[in-house]
C-alpha cells in the first residue's frame, strides 16, 4: 500500500485553510482532509490541529464508531487552547474527512462536506456531501452549546448526499441526513483499489469563460494516477494544475486531497 496527500490555495484566499495527511504505518493506511471555515479566524492552524488529532485518534483505536471518533478527535484538538490561550475560540471550525484501510477493509467518516471516492477495477464510486445552507456542521460546535443551538436554528439546513457510480446517479442515490450526523462508509478494499477524500473546493472550479465545472467531471483529474510510487497524489495534482493554467481554469476555494492505493 501507499498513501499521499496535497493541498492547494484557492485564488480567492490569502492563506490556504485546507490541510491533508496520508500515510501507511504498521499495517494501517490513512487519508485525512480538513477544510477550515473561511469565516472563522485562524482556521489554517485549526485545520492542521484537527488533522493531526484525527491521526492520533486512529493510532489510539481504529474500532471507534463515528460518534466516539469525532468526540475523541475534537476534544484532543481542543487541547491546543491550553497551549495557545490567545488562539481564537473558533479556530477549530474545520470539516474532517477521514478514511483508513486495515486488514483489507476500509472505513470512512465524513464530518461536514466534501467528496469520498472508491475507485475499483469495476468503476468509480463517489459520495458527494453538501449542506443546503452552505454552512458545514463542524465538530467544533460540540465545544460550545450556544453555537450548536444557533446552528440548529438555521432554516432549510440539510446534509444532502449524492451517490454515483461512474458519474451516473444511482437509483435511490440521493438522500439527506440531519446536521451533525457524519456520513459513514465501510467496505472491502481489494488490491489495486484507490480510496480518497477530497475537500469541497472541488466544487469551485471554473473554465476560462467563467462557467462552472461539475465536481463529478473533475474526480478523474484528481484520481487518474499514472503510477503509485512515492508522492503519487502530489504528482497528479501538479499535472492537473499545469493543465488548469494552460486552459485558463481556476478554483476560487482551497482544494485538498488525500488518497490510499491498496
In a nutshell, what does this entry contain?
With 262 residues, this protein is of the alpha+beta class. It is 24% helix and 36% strand. The chain has helices at 43-60, 66-77, 80-83, 145-152, 219-223, 232-247, and strands at residues 2-8, 18-25, 28-36, 94-102, 105-111, 114-120, 123-131, 159-165, 168-177, 183-188, 194-198, 205-206, 250-251, 255-261.
Sheet with the most strands? Answer: 7 strands, antiparallel
Succession of helices and strands: EEEHHHEEEEHEEEEEHHEE
Biggest sheet strand order reads: 1-14-11-6-7-8-9
CATH homologous superfamily - what is it? PPM-type phosphatase domain
- Counted up, domains total 1
Helix content: 10-25%
Overall pLDDT metric: 96
Proportion of residues in extended strands? 35-45%
Query: Strand pairing plus helix content: what structural class?
Result: alpha+beta
* CATH T-level topology: Phosphatase 2c, domain 1
Name of the level-1 CATH class: Alpha Beta
Coarse morphology: globular
Gyration radius from CA atoms, angstroms: 17 Å
Oligomer: single chain
Distance between the termini: 5 Å
What descriptors fit this protein?
single chain, 262 residues, alpha+beta, Phosphatase 2c, domain 1, 7-stranded antiparallel sheet, 5-stranded antiparallel sheet, globular
Please characterize this protein's 3D structure.
Helix content is 24%, strand content 36%. The chain is α+β, with helices and mostly antiparallel strands. It has one domain (2-261): PPM-type phosphatase domain (Phosphatase 2c, domain 1, 4-Layer Sandwich), CATH 3.60.40.10. Strands 1-14-11-6-7-8-9 form a 7-stranded antiparallel β-sheet. α1 crosses α2. The longest helix is centred in the first third of the chain and has 18 residues, at 43-60.
Amino acid at each position: 500500500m501507499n498513501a499521499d496527500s496535497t493541498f492547494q490555495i484557492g485564488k480567492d484566499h490569502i492563506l490556504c485553510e485546507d490541510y491533508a495527511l496520508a500515510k501507511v504505518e504498521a499495517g494501517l493506511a490513512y487519508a485525512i482532509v480538513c477544510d477550515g471555515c473561511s469565516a472563522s479566524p485562524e482556521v489554517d492552524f485549526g485545520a492542521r490541529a484537527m488533522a493531526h488529532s484525527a491521526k492520533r485518534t486512529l493510532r489510539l483505536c481504529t474500532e471507534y464508531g463515528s460518534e466516539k471518533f469525532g468526540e475523541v478527535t475534537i476534544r484532543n484538538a481542543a487541547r491546543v487552547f491550553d497551549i495557545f490561550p490567545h488562539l481564537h475560540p473558533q479556530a477549530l471550525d474545520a470539516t474532517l474527512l477521514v478514511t483508513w484501510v486495515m486488514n483489507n477493509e476500509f472505513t470512512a467518516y465524513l464530518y461536514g462536506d466534501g467528496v469520498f471516492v472508491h475507485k475499483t477495477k469495476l468503476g468509480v464510486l463517489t459520495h458527494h456531501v453538501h449542506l443546503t445552507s452552505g454552512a458545514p456542521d463542524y465538530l467544533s460546535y460540540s465545544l460550545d452549546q450556544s453555537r450548536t443551538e444557533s446552528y440548529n436554528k438555521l432554516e432549510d439546513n440539510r446534509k444532502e448526499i449524492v451517490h454515483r457510480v461512474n458519474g451516473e446517479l444511482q437509483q435511490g442515490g440521493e438522500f439527506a441526513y440531519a446536521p451533525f450526523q457524519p456520513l459513514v462508509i465501510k467496505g472491502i478494499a481489494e488490491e489495486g483499489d484507490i480510496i480518497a477524500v477530497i475537500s469541497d473546493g472541488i466544487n469551485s472550479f471554473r473554465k476560462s469563460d467563467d462557467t462552472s465545472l461539475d465536481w463529478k467531471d473533475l474526480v478523474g483529474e484528481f484520481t487518474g494516477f499514472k503510477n503509485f510510487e512515492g508522492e503519487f497524489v502530489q504528482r497528479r495534482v501538479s499535472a492537473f494544475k499545469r493543465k488548469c493554467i494552460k486552459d485558463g481554469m481556476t478554483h476560487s476555494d482551497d482544494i485538498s486531497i488525500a488518497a490510499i492505493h491498496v
